[in-house]
Specification:
- With 166 residues, this protein is mostly helical.
- α3 packs antiparallel against α4.
- It has one domain.
- Helix content is 70%, strand content 0%.
- The two termini are 28 Å apart.
Length: 166
Amino acid sequence: MRSVEYESSPAEVRQFALVQIAVTAVFLVLLFFMFGGSDADYPPIWLVVVLVALVGAGSFLSERVWLSASPLPADAGPDELRGEAVNIFAAQTVRKLMYCEAPILIAVVVTFTSGYGGWPLVVTGFPGLLVLTWEVWPSLRNTSLTAAMLDSQGAESQLVESFLES
């Protein structure tokens, strides 16, 4: 299944990832203090386990996104392959973002509907932000995993090189 294409460059993907990580962190800190920080009671252990399990589920789903990339044709031109690879990686970055943000948004809903102050944001936000950064940032690991799928039928997408050069 081919990912939805996004016309983008490696610099735009990096900028997108950086903005999303920063906005999420600022949003969590503001909400934490808006709800009184840690002045409220700590949530029950079952709620903590559920919130952390949601972060784990989001991480699991994000880790599988790179597997959805269809191999690129080996007979296409190098510039075309390189552009297509970056566009596919950008689409995967958006999907990973959605999977990583979902548990954080559920924690925001729990924060609004419960009397536990900012604790649900701390419980989900810290590990959620770590997972978000790990999955969304176009690191050598993330670009290599996608490149392995794209190049599996002999194509030379040069996805890793695209991100190393910019």
